Amino acid sequence: xxxxxxxxxxxxxxxxxxxxxxxxxxxxxxxxxxxxxxxxxxxxxxxxxxxxxxxxxxxxxxxxxxxxxxxxxxxxxxxxxxxxxxxxxxxxxxxxxxxxxxxxxxxxxxxxxxxxxxxxxxxxxxxxxxxxxxxxxxxxxxxxxxxxxxxxxxxxxxxxxxxxxxxxxxxxxxxxxxxxxxxxxxxxxxxxxxxxxxxxxxxxxxxxxxxxxxxxxxxxxxx
Length: 223
Prior knowledge:
By secondary structure, the protein is an all-beta fold. It has no helices and 15 strands.
């Protein structure tokens, strides 16, 4: 006598049993049990949905926020009571960020939840987001900032003199000169410094004037 189980069931015991000369069966009668894969495989950083674990059932996986599913999202229970290969969930990577010109950045990682902090070199101001974070969709928050040189502001001609400059930002230089017949006290060259001010703007001095013979002089300043 041979025994067969329906699809989805496994035979427990011998497939063939015979009646012996002693009037009994050659072995214990087998039985059919439903194939069951048991608890689904746990996938790190994911959740799964299933109600049954028997043959033909399936479990669906989905990754937590900030993670990306690699592989098939569904695992099936086979007749051998094994689950088909399960996916994995990998953390999303936002990739490297560009560092602004005349600046630098501090970052420990480029994956979900990581942050990058921007800094500007001495003499520059940061414009834009100083802090950017890797979001759950795999992109960085905000936009790339920029570093612009500090501006020391416009310089004005001193009395009886001129100032010449092409730029007023960090590192720029300005040259003072006096009109013919006047002498400058101090240096005639000033530089826009990292703190956003010109180096000692008051030093451009075209000197004291004397009243002409038989006349008077009205003067407020020599700069």
